[in-house]
Design a protein that fits this description.
The protein contains 5 helices and 9 strands. By secondary structure, it is α+β, with helices and mostly antiparallel strands.
C-alpha cells in the first residue's frame, strides 16, 4: 500500500486580500529564510492559531484548577510570624507577595509530597512564569502528558484547602530567602519551565537557583495563597 503524497495542484486554495505592504514583507521574509512565500504565510498562520489555542488552554485550565477560589482573608484573621504554622490555613506562613490578582499571603505546606520529575522532557509546555506557580500548575495538570511534580502538589489537601499548587521558581526563592528552615537542605523542583528539556530547581542548602533536566526527580513542596 502506497502512502498518499501531497500534491499542490489539488491542495485547498483560497484568495487572500493583503493590505498594502504585506506582500512585500512576506516576500522579504521568504527570501531571508530561503523558502517560498506560501510556506512563510502558512507558517505564520499556524503560529497564530497555535497561540490562540494555547491561550484558550490556559483560560480553561485556570477555570478548572481553581476549584476553591482565592478569597480575601477575613479582616479578623491575623497571620502568624513568618516561618510559623498558620492554623486553619494549611501550612507555614511565608509573608506577602505580589500576584496578578493583588498582594497575597503565601502559605507553604509543612511537608514535602515526595520526589518527582517535571515531566514531558523534550516538549515546550508554556509554563514559564517565574512569579505565578498557580498559572504554571494549571497548564501542567491539564495537559495530556504526565507532570508528576505538579500533579502531586495539586492533589495535596490540608486543613480543608484544596487550592495548593507547585511553586514557581520565584516562589521557591521566596521560601529560601524568608523561611529556609522550613525546607530540607536539598533540591526542590519548581513549576517554571526553562526550555523543552529543562526546568528551574532551587537548592535549599546553598541557595542556588539553577536549571536541570525535566527527567530529574526532586522534592516537591505545595504552596497556596490568599488575597490580603
Amino acid at each position: 500500500m502506497t502512502s498518499k503524497q501531497y500534491d499542490s495542484r489539488t491542495a485547498d486554495k483560497f484568495v487572500v486580500r493583503l493590505p498594502d505592504g504585506l506582500r512585500s514583507a512576506i516576500e522579504a521574509a521568504a527570501q531571508a529564510d530561503d523558502r517560498s512565500m506560501n510556506s512563510v504565510f502558512v507558517k505564520a498562520t499556524r503560529q497564530y492559531l497555535d497561540s490562540q489555542h494555547q491561550q484558550q488552554i490556559l483560560l480553561n485550565a485556570l477555570a478548572k484548577t481553581v476549584t476553591t477560589p482565592i478569597r480575601p482573608s477575613p479582616a479578623s484573621i491575623t497571620p502568624p510570624a513568618i516561618g510559623d504554622y498558620w492554623p486553619g490555613q494549611g501550612g507555614i506562613y511565608g509573608g506577602l507577595r505580589h500576584y496578578p490578582e493583588g498582594l497575597c499571603h503565601i502559605i507553604f505546606a509543612s511537608i514535602d509530597v515526595g520526589r518527582h520529575a517535571y515531566g514531558e522532557y523534550g516538549t515546550d509546555v508554556q509554563a514559564t512564569s517565574n512569579i505565578d506557580g498557580l498559572a504554571n500548575t494549571a497548564i501542567l495538570v491539564n495537559r495530556d502528558g504526565s507532570h508528576p511534580a505538579a500533579e502531586a502538589a495539586y492533589a495535596y489537601i490540608c486543613d480543608g484547602h484544596n487550592d495548593f499548587y507547585l511553586p514557581s521558581s520565584g516562589e521557591l526563592h521566596h521560601g529560601y530567602f524568608y523561611l529556609p528552615e522550613a525546607f530540607a537542605k536539598d533540591w526542590y523542583i519548581s513549576s517554571t519551565q526553562r526550555s523543552a528539556h529543562t526546568a528551574y530547581f532551587m537548592d535549599f542548602e546553598d541557595g542556588w537557583l539553577d536549571l536541570s533536566g525535566k527527567y530529574n526527580e526532586r522534592l516537591a513542596r505545595p504552596v497556596r495563597r490568599i488575597l490580603q
